[in-house]
Amino acid sequence: MKEPLAYMRKAQGSWEKRILKSLNSMCTELGVPLAQKRPVSEQKELLNKWNEMGTDEPDLSLFRPVYAPKDFLEVLMNLRNPNYENGEQPSFRNHLGLIQVPLKVKDIPELKEDFSELDLNTGQLGIDDSAQVPPEFFENEHVRIGQKVLAEQDSAAAQQYVRQGCPTALRADLWALILNISNQPEDILYYEQLKSNVIQHDLLVDSLIYKDVKLTASNDDYYFVFEDYLYQVLLCFSRDTSVLEHFTYSSATPPKSYIRGKLGIEDYAVFYPPNGVIPFHGFSMYVAPLCFLYHEPSKLYQIFREMYVRFFFRLHSISSHPSGIVSLCLLFETLLQTHLPQLFYHLREIGAQPLRISFKWMVRAFSGYLATDQLLLLWDRILGYNSLEILAVLAAAVFAFRAVNLMEVTSLAAAEAVLADLSTLKVMPLLQIFLFATVT
Q: Which residues are bridge partners to 258 per DSSP?
């Protein structure tokens, strides 16, 4: 289903225009075409160093990300429903956060019901000291059940199973089962075709992808070793026209490019980039954690593509979907305002609106912020519950966890400093305590 709300569609449309303007002006300024065929010598060179593209140091100093998460947040803060401008709905006026659109988001009782498998009496991977069951007993039993689920190749059972977390040794196979990825010969062939498209044609977005990997994953202690994989996956992804299918249920529309001199004539239009997705600052972090699980490029590629068209596209498009970024921001702010009102008001008063800090975590699904083992436990639950709402719950739980320190800060910079390093956090205890030990 496309986006039902007209004002959301309109906002998404004007945001897309802004992105395209940014891309086109970069094109013009740098005198770089959107796409061109590579000379044969360059094709050979790229083919030879396909597995070590990270050693290549093209000069990207003039390229800049088309947008960063904070630019996107500014747009979301200005969203308004024209029907509510006169403020007929007094209850909504009490929302003091940055997001000012009236969407229905869940409260803690509803979240408890939805995430019931996270309760304090259910065994979880990622909890070290469960009182009821000795952890090694739970883990051994959980591994045994996981092996059975894999043996039966039951996708629905796998999805239910990962709600309690995946054993490390089984995670790659369980995720592939949930996402229906089997890596058949035809899938490998398809990946090879995408690769040959990369070899033959040079796109402007390639430079954006290079730049993004250099700015993010290459500087990350966990992910820098996967630099070559990231280029391979993201360059192939940009050429993959099958990604266009997700626009049938996304609020977004793929951008079009016209053959020179034929502007506006539909017969001469092509989608650009071919997958319809313009990467932004941090985009490569959607792929990086998956490199820990999959070492075979075509399988890594398919898993990422499926994760993107099911989940990640919602984090950078404007929609009213419960897993869309607007709803996640509103859910986060509502949880804080309801359950930590003193903290919320304090931060708001000193000009440190909590969403300004947590937005970047949610847009990247916490990738690059949490330690990898913790991030994968979080993504287990995204797959298990088929929802991104847990990102907003975790963001609120982080604030709850650091509330004492945050009550003492007097500026946005100080609040950011308190929350600068999330790499020591344990995701599951935070979520459990916030959802099931919070007095409601």
A: 269
Q: With beta carbons less than 8 A apart as the criterion, state whether 121 and 132 touch.
A: yes
Whether the Cβ atoms of residue 294 and residue 172 lie closer than 8 Å to each other: yes
Could you tell me if 200 and 38 are in contact, meaning their C-beta atoms sit under 8 angstroms apart?
Answer: yes
Amino acid 440: pLDDT: 45
* CB count in 10 Å sphere of residue 401: 18
Q: What dihedral do alpha carbons 198, 201, 207, 209 form, nearest 10°?
A: -30
Of 16, 10, 12, 19, nearest to 67 by C-alpha is 19
Long-range contact pairs involving 125-132 (C-beta distance under 8 Å, separation at least 24): 125/164, 125/165, 125/166, 125/167, 125/377, 125/380, 125/428, 126/165, 126/374, 126/377, 126/426, 126/427, 126/428, 126/429, 127/428, 127/429, 127/432, 128/426
User: Can you spell out the DSSP letters for 404-418?
Assistant: HHHTT--SHHHHHHH
Q: How far apart are CA 282 and CA 65, in angstroms?
A: 9
Q: Is the pLDDT of residue 50 over 60?
A: yes
| Cα–Cα distance, 87 to 92 (Å, whole number) | 8
For 258, the 3-state DSSP assignment is: strand
Mind listing the pLDDT tens digit for each residue in 194-249? 999 999 999 999 999 999 999 998 888 889 899 999 999 999 999 999 999 999 99
Identify residue 350 by its one-letter amino acid code: I
Q: What is the mean pLDDT of the chain?
A: 90
The answer to whether 23 touches 17, Cβ cutoff 8 Å, is: no
Residue 259 pLDDT grade (very low, low, confident, very high; cuts 50, 70, 90): low
Confidence grade of residue 140 (pLDDT, cut at 50, 70, 90)? confident
b (16+ CB within 10 A) / e for 34-48: ebeeeeeeebeebee
Per the CB < 8 A criterion, the answer to whether 169 and 144 are in contact is no
DSSP annotation of 267:
G
Whether pTM > 0.85 for this model: the answer is yes
Contact 48/199 with Cβ under 8 angstroms?
no
Q: Which amino acid is at 417?
A: A
